[in-house]
Amino acid sequence: MTGEKQKEKDIGKRDFIDFNAALWKYNGEKGAMIPLLQLAQDTYGYIPEFAIDSISEIVGIPSAEIYGVITFYSQFRLKPFGKYLIRICEGTACHVNGAKSILRAIEDELGITIDETTDDGMFTFLSVACLGCCSLSPVMMINEDTYGRLTPAKARDIIRNYKKNIKEVTA
Amino acid sequence: MKKIKVGLGTCGISAGGMKVYEELEKEIGEKNLKVDLCETGCMGMCYKEVLVEVIDEDGTSSLYGEVTSDKIKGIINNHIMKNQPVEEWIVKNEKPKEDDTFFAKQKRIVLRNCGVINPSSIDEYINAGGYKALELVLKESDPVKLINTIKESGLRGRGGGGFLTGMKWQFAHGAKSDKKYVICNADEGDPGAFMDRSVLESDPHSVLEGMIICGFAIGSDEAYIYVRAEYPRAVYRLKNAIKQSHEKGFLGKNILGSRFSFKIKIKEGAGAFVCGEETALIASIEGKRGTPRIRPPFPANKGLFGKPTNINNVETFANVPWIIMNGAEAFASLGTPNSKGTKVFALAGKIARGGLVEVPMGITINEIVHEIGGGIKGNKKFKAVQMGGPSGGCIPSSMGALEIDYQQINKTGAIMGSGGLVVVDETTCMVDMAKFFLRFTQNESCGKCTFCRIGTKRMLEILERITDGRGEKDDIDLLLDLADTIKNNTLCGLGQTAPNPVLTTIKYFREEYEAHIFNKKCPAHSCSALVNYKIDAEKCIGCTLCVRNCPVNAITGEKKKPHSINQEICIKCGKCFDICKLNAVIKD
Ligand SMILES: Cc1cc2nc3c(=O)[nH]c(=O)nc-3n(C[C@H](O)[C@H](O)[C@H](O)COP(=O)(O)O)c2cc1C
Ligand code: FES
Asked: So what's the ipTM on this one?
């Protein structure tokens, strides 16, 4: 068994019962597919293959069709995220206030581009549209914390601080 | 007892509102003060967040702006403990202030309770006159009269299309069925807009009340609110509001003792712009891929689960209770002949005062930008406003005297849209702006129509080559041709409006396109491939930061002496420009 599969199984064991219990509650309700997928993602942090199979069994829709729904919506992901989720806003206000240069700075600092996760599994970099605080643009969020009025230098400093903290914790 | 309110909308929280709230709580606790500390929603002045309002015993209000830890102590020690307001930090009270022009021309109907009441408290909503409209409607028990009131008010849908709300209700009312649905569209897809979110976060009950009234009007007993999952706070507050509303008997069986029953469920969207389109939204609630379908049949006849459905936007619903309480004439007295009432805008971009504003229809763009918005940031020149997001367009500053109403805006080639209003200045490249929106729609196209899926892709490629300095002489004509074909051969509003940002920028800023194509220059110095980076020898101190960061070693120079960039080697990545702390790298 590959490491990935093993990991999947381990997480699976932990939450499988909760997830399944919740799954059964939904049985029969109209239009339950998206809430079920959201449930799977809330439980596991992403949608593992076995969850698709379980949902398929319960709602009686083929896995392939469920897969189609998953890939249609940007919210769903088939791979786990890094520990720190960096969401850079590329909404209109942030765009005209220089989001691109912030994006470049972060890409450079982490060595990854949008939609990628660093090899150490620490950072995932995503681009989103409008975080709703345009007056602070350009803006990014790292997990639940918002950072506004960014400059490329400020963004780099913020990322470096996170990196430093990670090093200190592991040391 | 004095009251302290902290603005905890998304903008307030992003600016550090939670911390301010906690610190206030701590100060109050430690000093054992008798103060009523509470939260409220978005006050509109997002540019002055974190906002804290102190209301004295006699009702006098002082609004403190840009509140930080240091200011908290000052406010507590002086204002709360000694009754001495700290005048210099106050942005709004009864005395004339610099920021008064931000409010002077606003008229708050939709935002009547936003930033005023505590969104988690149904009692505060009721005290502010909430659920009175519902009581009145149920007492009169006359759906036809109710629909006529909405028709007479002239209210048009605020989700972008601008269809007359009363008419829509009438169609759904007239549809014969054992089951009907009401849907509130809270998908808010415009990537530079946050009106609906602010209303849901700051005054969820006003939306619920509008929905319940709509349910009574059309004869429905069940509703859905389709909210973007990216709006967790809005979802949280809605859930709470629905629960409270049930407890008070405004939702559930036999509402307020009448024969009318109604329930509201929340559906979280999953991040697809096209799901804001009504038929796609319905497919998404049904659990499918959110792809639009051909209309007719319209949702009013065949909507959710095949049943007659009335779908309105958040802001549309929030207007309804006000219209019932104040009368259709009061609403219709505001605005222009074809656009009544007010419109909420999310004012953002290169504007000095960004925030959430609500203005009467008929106000001019100049009034919004220069008076309410306080003009352009940093003394730059006002160039254009972008309205309507990816479906809208850019209106040049030369048309600033234009009165905002549905017809006038449509004439420009832009659309009213849902309320995103992004102001740009001379440093924004209009070709890049068009490219930005086209990339967005291209990404979000559901793929069903060929012209939308592939046509937008080809347009994007052309825009990319123009901004990369590889534009060809026929490119503008090619863009116009593609735009025309896409507009006429696509099924839903996404495709039909996708070319608008390109069309309006060509219409008003054609010379910018030509400068890119023929002179290989970006007049706004924004497209990096078309600018030359140079070093200002006066400013450069020779710190070598740029030398060390240049990926192609194009920068040379001795330490502590001005550097220079070799244009032959430079790949125009812009890194030196971004990284220089002294602004010594300039764009030419
Ligand atoms: C691509 C596309 C995206 C849309 N996005 C939204 C949206 O985010 N919010 C919204 O209220 N209406 C949106 N609409 C308009 C809806 O289809 C519909 O007209 C609206 O919800 C009706 O409500 P109203 O009459 O109150 O405006 C969108 C339409 C299209 C074509
Ligand atoms: S555009 Fe970035 S927060 Fe709105």
From this structure: 0.85
| pLDDT > 80? residue A71 | yes
pTM confidence score? 0.90
Answer yes or no: is the C-beta of A137 below 6 A from any ligand 2 atom.
Answer: yes
What CATH code is carried by the domain that includes residue A144? 3.40.30.10
Between the CA of A130 and the centroid of ligand 2 the distance, in Å, is: 4
Q: Give the closest residue to A159 by CA, choosing from A84, A92, A91, A100.
A: A84
Report the b/e string of B332-367 with b at 16+ CB within 10 A: bebbbeebbbbbbbbbbbbbbbbbbbbbbbbbbbbb
Among all bound ligands, the one having the nearest atom to the CA of B277 is 1
- Per-10-residue mean pLDDT, chain B, length 588: 93 90 96 95 93 96 94 96 96 94 96 96 97 98 98 96 96 97 94 91 97 98 92 91 98 96 93 90 92 92 97 98 98 96 96 95 97 93 96 96 96 94 96 96 92 96 96 97 96 94 98 97 92 92 91 90 92 86 90
The number of folded domains in chain A is: 2
The CATH classification number of B532-587 equals: 3.30.70.20
Given this chain, do its domains B2-99 and B122-330 carry the same CATH topology? no
Q: Is A133 in the pocket of ligand 2 (CB under 6 A)?
A: yes
Which of B11, B19, B277, B344 is the best mutation test for A, with the most CBs of A within 10 A? B11
Per-window interface: A 20-79 vs B, CB < 8 A: 30-35, 37-38, 68-69, 72-76
| pLDDT band at A12; cut points 50, 70, 90 | very low
| Cβ atoms B249, B255 nearer than 8 A | yes
* Residue A136 covered by a domain: yes
Q: Does residue A32 have its Cβ closer than 6 Å to ligand 2?
A: no
Q: Could you write out the DSSP letters of every residue in B309-336?
A: EEEEEHHHHHHHHHHHHH-HHHHHTSEE
Task: Specify whether the CB–CB gap between B30 and B104 falls below 8 A.
Answer: no
Tell whether omega for the bond before B50 is within 30 degrees of 0, i.e. cis. yes
Residue B71 region by backbone torsions, left for phi larger than 0, else alpha for psi between -120 and 50, else beta: alpha
CB-nearest partner of B272 from A30, A73, A97: A73
CA distance B561 to B459: 46
Measured CA distances, B290 to B198, B276, B401, B437, B443 (Å): 25, 9, 40, 21, 14
Delimit the domains of chain B by residue range: 2-99, 122-330, 342-425, 430-519, 532-587
Residues on chain A touching B194 (C-beta within 8 angstroms): 130, 132-134
Contact B370, B408 (CB under 8 A): no
**For atom 17 of ligand 1, which residue has the closest CA?**
B277
Residues A104, B573: C-beta atoms closer than 8 Å: yes
Q: Does A131 touch chain B (CB under 8 A)?
A: yes
**C-alpha to C-alpha distance for B6 and B51, rounded to whole angstroms:** 6
Nearest one of A145, A150, A159, A140 to A97, comparing CA atoms: A150
Atom of ligand 2 nearest to the CA of A136: 3
For residue A17, name the pLDDT band (cuts at 50, 70, 90).
Answer: low
Q: What is the pLDDT of residue A2?
A: 45
